[in-house]
Amino acid sequence: MPALPLTFNRDEALQSETPRVDRASALAGSASPGAASRAELTVDAVVELENGWPSATDSAPVRGPRPRQLTARALAVGLAIGAVLAAGNVYTGLKSSFIDGGALTAALLSFTFFASFKRLARMPFGPFENNVAQTAAASAAVMGFVHGLMAPMPALNLMGQATPAWALWVWGMGLALIGVVLGVLLRRKLVVEDALPFPTGTATAELIRTVHGDQGSAARRTRFLIWAAAAAAALTWFRDGRPALIPQALYLPLTVGGLSAASLTLGVATSPLMAATGMFIGLRGAASLFGGGIIAWGVVAPVAVHLGWSK
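Structure (tokenized):
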């Protein structure tokens, strides 16, 4: 399901009776679990984030213009980043069955883009625009999964039932429209009233607040992201391209039930993608996948071959 848009509604905030929230939760439009002070956007939080816009009870004059949120440049950059993330998610999903929404990556890259080319913009790229950009990017990034390009569509193609491109476009547009409508209808219930934690939104809000408050931190994070991407690209090139200096995998030097470890794919893949997937899912998830792989390919597969179920 596409990410919920995380823009603000000042009128809703003015009607809130919940105590003040912190800046990160207010910026993400979501709340942290177990804290009443983070349950909902309130007047004070909106006033603090909106560069001096006072509450309805304040008599002081407005100290600055309302910050820009939904702008063409934020949407353009967000959709461009989302297109790249969507293509990567199709590859990642087919290889590992995991995808990444990319909200953190999009927030960092959109800020870096406008920080690098700030002379081309009349107005500085603010945190609210960054929020819109990462929302658009994250929504686009998961659309390949929503389309069914990770499992159902490839399975139909393998069965000889090809789906025309126009049908995929219509299918995707219909799903996107349904997602937007549901997001609008459910936002107040899930985000404002029930105050569900939305950990990804909270983490993204914290990142946006950090990079807009400390450009040095953003530069360090971006450099690390670029160097990691360059290292992964180089390793993949020397594994799959020419010259092929790195093997596809390092297989165990043993046999299981008369079958070599290589034929059972028992070994360690030289894949930056798999290493990154392990970082995303954590030690517990990785250990579970490892145990399942051992049972499937080290026990079930040899038995299936000996019983004639498979070749």
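The first strand starts at residue 249 and ends at 251. Confidence is low (pLDDT under 50) at residues 1-62.
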